[in-house]
Amino acid sequence: MEKIKMQPTRPEDALLTDAFADFLEKCRAKNLSEKTLNIYTVHFKFFREYLSDPDKKASDITEDTLEGFILYLQNRDCNDITVQSYMRGVRCFCYYLMEEGYLQRFKIKLPKADKRIKETYTDAELKKLLKKPNVKTCEFNEYKTWVFSNYLLATGNRISTVLSLQIKDLDFENETIQLNKCKNRKAQIVPMASSLKVILKEYLTYRKGSPDDYVFCNSYGGKGNIRSYQEMLAKYNQKRGVSKTSAHLYRHTFAKRWILNGGDIFRLQKLLGHSNLDIVKEYVNMFGRDLTKDYTSFNPLDTLGTVRTAGKIGFGK
User: What region holds the Core-binding (CB) domain (predicted)?
Assistant: First the structure.
């Protein structure tokens, strides 16, 4: 019996769910991280719920469809940043549909979102968090969390990068740290602050371990879990009277203090591992009133001393 040849699905007949499955396969072929793929999947789930039609075709997506999705998210009380984030993921998928011939090309503009001032740890909070516990009486977990907190502030690294750090990545002789797992998937070498060097060397005398072991491990010596370390940090902070508990706030704090202490944004870009200056510029704009600190000491007009404080008001007086 002669086999019936299956005709390939035409782009205009392809279901949206099938097209998304193909999109994920292409993303995997490009070696995108599983974290990125999971984000795309979550965004598509909301997009499909909005469409409410499991048999929706890929070719049915229009500019009006996307505008409706924005309203759908807003009606669910999603804030501007969340709406923009979801639209960014759906836009990537839609551009893929255009490249593969499922859709006619059209430009997709992201909705505008007001930039919020990023939260950071205050000086008072840092003093509480970075006060060294008594190593003779405290539990090792408290001491490890103290070291972890110091590391986060001294480097501005993301928590996923820190938990991938191995003992062999710490070069005490040259005072550098090799980061092998970064968000941009590019390894980099960053300086090791002198104060951090002291802390890490002491920590490793207690931690011990071989060069291939993780610096910040779990209870069994394996790679530390992000959620576990976040929870550990939250308990540590709350115990010290600090309500802020995010590890990522240390990254914001690092950037803020770097700039306020006179560091240039080009080096900050490299240290934070950003591919361009756009995100770093956001850090510059996020400090609000902090930028007025010592403003008179640096302002060109004030430092020239050409303007005297007026004793009397009015011309000719």
Answer: 14-98
* Residue 180 in tokens: 């092998």
The CATH code of the domain at 123-295 is: 1.10.443.10
Nearest to 34 by CA among 165, 188, 162, 185: 185
Residue with structure tokens 């390939």?
8
Is the Cβ–Cβ distance between 248 and 158 less than 8 Å? yes
Top mean-pLDDT range of 107-121, 199-213, 269-283: 199-213
Cα–Cα distance for residue pair 160/105, rounded to 1 Å: 37
Q: Amino acid identity of 80?
A: D
Q: Which pTM does this prediction carry?
A: 0.69
> With 80 as the cut, is the pLDDT of residue 281 above it?
no
Q: CATH classification of 11-99 is 1.10.287, yes or no?
A: no
Q: Which of 249, 230, 248 is nearest to 120 (CA)?
A: 249
Cα–Cα distance measured from residue 110 to residue 94, given in angstroms and rounded to the nearest whole number: 13
The runs of H, that is alpha helices, within 156-241 are: 159-163, 194-207, 226-239
CA distance 119 to 109: 28
Domain boundaries, the chain: 11-99, 123-295
Amino acid at 114: D
Tell me the chain's radius of gyration from C-alpha atoms: 26
Q: How far apart are CA 267 and CA 152, in angstroms?
A: 17
Long-range contacts of 223-226 (CB under 8 A, 24+ apart): 223/163, 223/164, 224/163, 225/163, 226/159, 226/160, 226/163
Residue type, 70: I
Distance CA 254, CA 120 (A): 9
Closest residue by Cα to residue 295 from 306, 287, 285, 303: 303
Token duo for residue 112:
């505008």
pLDDT tens-digit series, residues 126-139: 999 999 999 999 99
